[in-house]
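Take a protein:
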Amino acid sequence: MINRCFIVVAAAAILFGCTITQNVKPVKAGNIGLICIENNQKVLMDGFLPELEDLVRLRGHETMHYTGSTPAGCSHTLKYTANWHWDMAMYLSYAKLDVYQGSKSVGNAIYDARSGGANMNKFGSTRSKIAPLVAQLFP
């Protein structure tokens, strides 16, 4: 009996420890002009910024990316961070997108597979992981 309980508890711990979460606080519809995306040079995946910029454009918004000070003419800025891990292949383990209007936070989105463990859904293209975030962030 004790062995069965242990097996059930261990199986539950493994299953619940294999979660991938997505949380989004959408940007309210309104007057969104040029969205300037800050190039995060700490993100070491060359394709992340172009993918992000393309996905925001597909939502109908004009974008440009920049390094350093925010350019004039940006109605909103988007700042991001992203990390990858290795487990049989590289996969996006964490991404956070923050949207600001001036200095005020107006939306954010988080993809978190750091507790993904044995969850095979953690594998896949970066685009397939961030596209749903961008779609919800800019409805």
